[in-house]
Amino acid sequence: MTLNRRAFVVLFPIVLLAHIVGGGVGYMGYRHALITQHVARLQQNLSQLQNAYAEYASLDSQLLYVVRNSSAFLTFIDESDAEYRTRVLGIGVQDSLLSLVPNDGTSVSCSIFQSDGRQIFYFDNGTDPFETLGPRQAAFAQAVLNDDVTSRSGLVTEADGTTYLVMAAKVQARTGGVGIAGPRPDQSLIMQVSVRPRRFATIRRTMAREYGAPVELLAAPPASPPELSATVQLAVGLYARETPSPAYLRGPLARFAVVTGLCVVFLSLLSVGMLMLLVRRYIIAPVEELDRQVTAITENRRMDIDVPDVGEVGRLAANVRMLHGQLTRSLRQVRQLYETDSVTGIGNRIYFNEKLDQFFHLSVTTGRPLTMLFIDLDNFKQVNDMHGHRTGDALLGGVASALSEVLQEAIGASGTMGIVARLSGDEFTALILADSRGAVIGALIDAFLLKFRGGFRVDAASYPVTASIGVAAVPGDAETSAHLFWCADQAMYHAKAAGRNTVAFYADMPRDADAPEWSVMPAERGRATRPPVRQAAGPSG
Amino acid sequence: MPCAAIVPALLLSALTPLAARASGLNLLVWEWGISPDVVRAWTAMTGVEINQIVFDNGDRRDLLIANVNAPIDLAVVDSAHVQPFGDRGLLLDQSGLPLPETSRSDERSRAMCGRYGVPYSWGNTGIVYRADRLKEAPRSWADLLKPAPALAGHIAMTDDQEELLAAALNFMGRPMNSGDPEDLRRAFELLRAQAPAVLTYGLPMTAQQRRDIKGRIFIGLGATGDQKTLNIGGGGRENWRFVTPREGAMVWTDCLVVLRRTRDPGLAERFVTFLAQPENGAANAVFLHQPPPNPHAAALLPAAMRDDPQVYPPPGYPVIYRGPFPTDSLPLRRRILSALLAIHDAQ
């Protein structure tokens, strides 16, 4: 998993959770504000309803008061002749009533009931002259007549759904005074005025339509009203409560939830994007850069690591750099030990093989000539046997030093490249990017052979050893590095056969029918291209 | 005749306290319901003023009569309303009033007025219209109750429920004083359909005096003699006509009654006797453009008036005499009128 993905997997759930919590808190806050706002609006609407009720209640009581105190009414109730009362006096009560009714379409009715419950007068100013007092309004009057009250007002809704604001009062027959409380006093009449509160009904209807639930009329305030609900008192023992249907706020809340959800997702993505940008810039990018540099080092495309700055990544880079340095040094030491001959201190067979391939490739690709010297010490075994291995090893070290020295002298002036190595026992070699017949090679061979003249000297002692040198070169002698090795080896044997302490060029060697020929089967060429490594590097015969 | 000046004076007189009129007789009467010449003659002869208290609605007139505090000595009352007041003890019995033979009305009129009233005038309910506005004279209640579109907004109907329903019931072929709720329902439907075309509910002769109505009434519900009052303000042009609908002449008889509460019954009865004299009856009939109930007075009328179909119902037309209205139908009748007013106001 990449660092980017890790960062995303870590950040996104946290950011999303934070935004969901934030969105949830926002939703709850919005819901609370919405409910508060709608409760205030409900209160406002109910206040209008309350005002409308108060206006109609006021009209009701004015009508009741004025009519019951009018001479027409007093004359009417004082009249015992029912026919005369109806024929002549009824119109007076009607006029008293109409003189007070506002000319705005307000529907009003007036009824008078005798103490025996019989209705003796009814008039309304409506447009249907055949309409009679509704049974529930009549029952309201009867209840006042029967109950121990002097007056009562309230809302009465008839079966057809029409609501009336009704006010009924007991009136003393003959005198018109306030009626006697108590059930059915013989001397009391009931005068009842009903107003059809159109505005009140319209507000109720409008509220019911708007809120999806009717305005309830209650005898007592609700003990534990719902969250979205409002109540007003219309009169003593009469309350109006509106509780909107559950669906009323569902729409706006659902819309807000959707918008909030989208915002949560959008803001989460935006926040994660910004965080990812910052994390990438300040955390991932330095780590990636370190990774790139380490990768480049492992792929040998760069040598060192840049330490960006202080901080964890800087310290990590510094540590990696330090580790890399230690590893490089250790590797160099290992490599040096691996490629160095422990007896002579010059390159061993492994080193030689690597350099042979390298120089051969360089020669092939650049066209520069490559010459290999295969050197074998003559009579070294006798020295070993006579003076011991310690002396032998010292002699081998002296030869290696001499070889290195003459090589450096030979190539020093020309500026070409060359190496020396001990192949095994008393076998040495030198590889020089130079023409085998040129001055460099010639000077090197001469200077080297000169070291053996009169015995080879080590620590003031002289030992009777000489060197046989085989020379092979490309282009000319060999097609592969192994072939070159083989050619030099053959030339060295030719030099030994020619009497030792001499040099032989493979190119000058006669092509003897009995001499072994370089041949490698195609299937074995890969293996044959690299000469076998001899394990023992000590002096041998 | 200083008619225009008299009207507000008469209207004000209804509000004048009793003490201010203690010297005269207070007469409750239709507007323009008595000849000023006859009144002047009475005053000249007796020195007693006649204070007229006018009404234009039978129900309100009855209320005034019933109100014992209302200072009324005499009243002109429709014959159908006399008996209840008499029975109630509000009227003086006139059956013993010593009237000479020449002052006595015909038997039918006397029977209609009963013992508590003396026949004063008679006539019938019909249609008043402006001859200069209508191309053809109306002939049926249909011309008023189902008016042509051109008459919409030019109709005046009375606000007296008896007259209003009488016209509708008569048009429907039903008794004018029917108490049958079904009759009244149909009559109401008829009048409700007419309501959008009605300019005002009020006697044409009263409504005509309103500034916002004046000149806009072309046709209306009226009674014999109303054309005379309507023409008073016409500047000499007698454009108003009265016509009896062909459905029939609904005859009413107005009676002169003396209220028991009068402070001077003798003087009041003297005035009744004075008006019953043929000469005064004839003079009053000429003024009212209404037939006198006294045949001796009728004989004194100009021949043109005796033959005038605006005064006497045209021969051959059905005659329906007004009778008492069932008491139990009165609340409904009054509510029909109230409903029509409410419907009209809502328009």
UniProtKB/TrEMBL annotation, chain A:
Ranges in a coiled coil: 32-59
Domain HAMP positions: 281-332
Stretches assigned to the GGDEF domain: 368-508
Domain of life of the native organism: Bacteria
One GO term (biological process): signal transduction
GO cellular component, one term: membrane
Record field: transmembrane: 256-279
Disordered, as annotated region: 519-541
InterPro entries, per the entry: DGC-Regulatory_Protein (IPR052163), GGDEF_dom (IPR000160), HAMP_dom (IPR003660), Nucleotide_cyclase (IPR029787), Rev_trsase/Diguanyl_cyclase (IPR043128)
Keyword terms: Coiled coil, Membrane, Transmembrane, Transmembrane helix
Annotated PANTHER family: DIGUANYLATE CYCLASE DGCT-RELATED
NCBIfam families (alphabetical): GGDEF (TIGR00254)
Protein name: GGDEF domain-containing protein
Species of provenance: Gluconacetobacter sacchari
From TrEMBL, chain B:
Database matches in SUPFAM superfamilies: Periplasmic binding protein-like II
UniProt signal peptide: 1-19
Domain of life: Bacteria
Pfam families reported in the protein's UniProt record: SBP_bac_8
Keywords associated with the record: Periplasm, Signal, Transport
Compartments where located: Periplasm
Protein name per Swiss-Prot or TrEMBL: Spermidine/putrescine-binding periplasmic protein
